Amino acid sequence: MTEYMRSSDAFTWSMESDPRLRSTVVTVLLLDRSPDWEAMRARFEAISAELPMFRQCVVESPLGAPPRWEPCPDFDPDFHMRRVGAAAPGTVDTVLEMARVAAMDDFDRARPLWEATLVEGLADGGAAVVCRFHHALTDGVGAVEIAGRLFDLTPEPEARPAATVGVDPETRGAWWREYLDPIGFGARQATATVTDVVRSVPGLAFDALRHPVSTATGAVETAASVYRTVRPVNETGSALMTERSSVRHLDVHEVPLEKLRQAGHAGGGSLNDAFVAGVAGGLRRYHEKHGADVGDLHLCMPINLRTADDDPGGNRITLMRFDVPVGESDPAQRIAEIHRRTTRVRDERSLPHTQLIAAAMNLVPRWYVGAVLRHVDFLCSDVPGIPVPVYVGGARILAQYAFGPTIGAAVNVTLLGYVDVCELGIDVDTGAIADVDVFHACLVDGFDEVLALA
């Protein structure tokens, strides 16, 4: 049976008709030395055999069906894995420049949507790995699960069974299958919809008879929740960060994990609330530096919907947009208010209907989707990472950073935990924020004032 993209993945895939909405995720691993290349390469090849999408490419479907995953007949691991020497001066900035170019570059859509580049010869004797993948391949939590298959707990690489390919790359259906499969897909979707309706009608009727007011109220609340999820945003909350471009700047910052968690608790919230409050504080300071007033700004935050039964591939998130009090100068009050608003968003009635909403959004013109996303001010993504030191190809990982795509916002700050540190990957649209050094300094100060609560 043909494997079609989930509606949320298809949405991520199709909105790239606007290059400013490119959905490339980049991760950077900093290593204490050069790893065993053959061991690392074998591990990546094993991952590509275990997870079919790492050997598949995306093919457009006729008759209005979603794009589909098909085995790539020309899959070549050496195209996806590169080994290069670091250019002078061989610092972390050198690696970040390579990651920046990778973030702006498009994928070869005739091939699987991932690449990994080993960068050797850094000035401190270390090395780095720059990985990039399309967001349709997986989300942040799924990527951490995949990384668990790449990493070892000791410097000695664990012996694992030889890779076995789960699908035959040469298998390809007859030409008429391209039209027959979409018809079958449409029939299955219609059948599933009718079945769900038939199953739900008796319960709805029973509830409506016994509790007519609460049933009607629940329906209205669900409709309102769906509207809040897809509502148009006609202008940025910031009067300063209004322009958008396809040029990115990447930067990093580190904060102590336990201290950030304590700060969140001190403000009546969680680690995630303190994280968002730190970014918000940096944005407030940045606006003050430029003499611009700032109140609430539009935040886009991924909400994790992944369960223990889901495989690592594909997106199991939904993007929720809501306003946060960036103008609030008291970090404790900011954390408390962010906690209140974030809790409300996590309890939205629309969350179980994410795929239906994404399917509907796929019917909306791309220019409209782009216009909405380009009015979001910033993104924050909190990804639980690996709590213990790990190794790849015998080399110890010193730090790992994730850079999520801006998808129309001025900046995306992604928190990836590693051991006892929160590693922040900062992806800036330079069309919105040109003075990136000033912004970075403001962001550091914003986190310092939050951490002071601990």
UniProtKB/TrEMBL annotation:
InterPro entries: CAT-like_dom_sf (IPR023213), O-acyltransferase_WSD1-like (IPR045034), O-acyltransferase_WSD1_C (IPR009721), O-acyltransferase_WSD1_N (IPR004255)
Cleaved signal peptide residues: none
O-acyltransferase WSD1-like N-terminal domain span: 5-274
UniProt-listed Enzyme Commission number(s): 2.3.1.20
Keyword Transferase: yes
Catalytic activity: an acyl-CoA + a 1,2-diacyl-sn-glycerol = a triacyl-sn-glycerol + CoA
This protein's pathway: Lipid metabolism; Glycerolipid metabolism; triacylglycerol biosynthesis
O-acyltransferase WSD1 C-terminal domain location: 314-449
Record's keyword terms, sorted: Acyltransferase, Glycerol metabolism, Lipid biosynthesis, Lipid metabolism, Transferase
PANTHER family the UniProt entry points to: O-ACYLTRANSFERASE (WSD1-LIKE) FAMILY PROTEIN (PTHR31650), WAX ESTER SYNTHASE_DIACYLGLYCEROL ACYLTRANSFERASE 4-RELATED (PTHR31650:SF1)
Protein name, as recorded: diacylglycerol O-acyltransferase
Organism expressing this protein natively: Gordonia paraffinivorans
